[in-house]
């Protein structure tokens, strides 16, 4: 009789532990769903407010380089010296590669982080013209 009682206690205990595991899965799914919602909110905000994209960065960079070059030319002429630099000296070819407004890529990385793993691979930085 005590064997059956022990067996019954073990079955009840294992059943309760099994329910605990299911409860943990439900909680984890809720956290992932909440994380995905946050990612979508960030994505919508990015689409509405992100202005530092590639064409904008290129235009600002070009204008800044031209202004700085004009200041340099003016200084050299005032000093009576020869202009030695060119406009390209004032351009940073990597400047617009540093800033992105790629909301879709940001969304993908955010969703991957919700799952806990972000796979990485080496790839070339996109060229901004």
Alpha carbon gyration radius: 30 Å
Sketch the major β-sheet. Answer: none
> DSSP helix count?
4
Mean pLDDT: 79
Measured between the Cα atoms of the first and last residue, the distance is: 83 Å
GO molecular function, one term: acyltransferase activity
Keywords: Acyltransferase, Signal, Transferase
Protein name: Acyltransferase
Signal peptide: 1-23
What's the SSE blueprint?
Layout (H helix, E strand, L loop, with lengths): L1 H48 L4 H26 L15 H4 L4 H13 L14
Helix pairs in contact: 1-4
Describe the structure.
With 129 residues, this protein is mostly helical. The protein has two domains: 1-50; 51-96, no CATH class. 71% of the residues lie in helices and 0% in strands. It has four helices and no strands. The protein has helices spanning 2-49, 54-79, 95-98, 103-115. α1 (2-49) runs antiparallel to α4. The protein is rod-shaped and about 110 Å long. The model has no long low-confidence stretch (mean pLDDT 79). GO terms for molecular function: acyltransferase activity.
